[in-house]
Design goal:
The strands form three sheets. This protein has a nine-stranded mixed β-sheet with strand order 5-4-1-6-11-8-12-10-9. A two-stranded antiparallel ribbon has the order 2-3. A two-stranded antiparallel sheet has the order 7-13. The longest helix is centred in the C-terminal third of the chain and has 13 residues, at 262-274. The protein starts with a strand and ends with a helix. It contains eleven helices and 13 strands. A hairpin with a 2-residue loop joins strand 2 and strand 3 (34-35). It has one domain (5-257): Spore Coat Polysaccharide Biosynthesis Protein SpsA, Chain A (Alpha-Beta Complex), CATH 3.90.550.10. The protein is 34% helix and 23% strand. 41% of the residues are buried. With 293 residues, the protein is α/β, with parallel strands linked by helices. The structure holds uridine 5'-triphosphate. Uridine 5'-triphosphate binds at residues 9-16, 55, 103, 106-109, 111-112, 129-131, 260.
Length: 293
């Protein structure tokens, strides 16, 4: 069955990026010339998604506005003859059909996904975490879709991380009784744990913010009590799902940046600026000048 819908949870506090995120949602911090969340929506569309369900909170109205028509601004740009910017802002509004649901209390990522249950309906769907910005030859979500089979309850993006860093991620437990597929890129999973200490980690394969689920995950989420930090953890629900249904890990080919943290965001901006057709040479010259100073 084609995956038509993607949930984009964007209702978290963004505490790692304070004070920048005191009044501005972290999803709207720019990576070079557009907000981080726009890349997530573009990845969804490039992967064949037709409908995006944005999970937000009362302080994040500006995210919806970013994907809406800005009538006054369009008129102003038209009057100035600034067709380039007019096209750019109109293209954002035309990107995709967007539905917004609210998460009234920040009870965790699992809870945010559960808020989209009615909007999703009874079909498999994707989840994209805008904090995980992935740049590569192919949209990361499309790579998960390739590995997806109707019988799977879940496909999860995975990536090798340094063993010392397991405490920052959900870590998967590969099922070694089953063969890997696609030259090792598709890995059957037995379970997963949220943010384990390196000594307790079942592997060094971390869960990254791209997922495909069958609607079964909603039933499990509803029964999942608060885990680490009292939040309803998506990882705990997937671990329960994996007890009796097929859940698969999928490696992706792009480079990932955690743009929900200042350092990951800076790295993404530097790399994207260097790769930019207009700004790349300017940044390179600036870096060279800094080295020579
Ligand atoms: P994070 O824990 O990385 O995001 O959640 P956060 O809570 O916004 O950030 P920090 O840790 O305070 O800096 C991962 C994803 O889940 C969403 C976030 O918006 C992010 O996309 N989320 C998290 C929600 O939508 N609701 C929540 O209650 C928690």
């Amino acid at each position: 069955m084609k995956i038509r819908t993607a949930i984009l949870p964007a209702a978290g506090w963004g505490t790692r990026f304070l004070p920048a995120t005191k009044a501005v949602p972290k999803e709207l911090l720019p990576i070079v010339d557009r907000p981080a969340i726009q890349y997530a929506v573009e990845e969804a569309v490039a992967s064949g998604i037709e409908r995006v369900i944005l999970v937000t909170n009362e302080h994040k109205r500006a995210i919806e506005d970013h994907f809406d028509i800005a009538t006054d601004l369009e008129h102003a740009l038209e009057a100035r003859g600034d067709i380039e910017h007019l096209r750019a802002i109109r293209a954002v509004a035309d990107l995709v059909q967007l539905v917004t649901v609210r998460q009234k209390e920040q009870l965790g990522l699992g809870h945010a996904v559960l808020m989209a249950r009615e909007a999703v309906g009874h079909e498999p769907f994707a989840v994209i975490l805008p904090d995980d910005f992935i740049v590569g030859p192919r949209p990361a979500l499309a790579e998960l879709m390739e590995a997806h089979e109707p019988a799977y309850a879940g496909v999860i993006a995975i990536e090798e991380v340094a063993p010392s860093e397991t405490g920052r991620y959900g870590i998967v437990m590969p099922d070694e009784t089953l063969p890997t597929l696609d030259g090792g890129r598709t890995v059957p999973l037995r379970g997963m744990v949220e943010k384990p200490n390196p000594a307790d980690a079942p592997s060094s394969l971390a869960i990254i913010g791209r997922y495909i689920f069958s609607p079964k995950i909603f039933e499990v989420l509803e029964r999942t009590a608060g885990g680490k930090n009292g939040e309803i953890q998506l990882t705990d629900a997937i671990a329960k799902l994996a007890l009796d249904q097929a859940v698969i890990g999928r490696r992706f080919s792009g480079k990932r940046y955690d743009v929900g943290s200042p350092i990951g965001w800076l790295e993404a901006n530097i790399d994207m600026a260097l790769a930019h057709p207009l700004y790349g040479s300017v940044i390179r010259a600036r870096m060279k000048a800094t080295r020579d100073e």
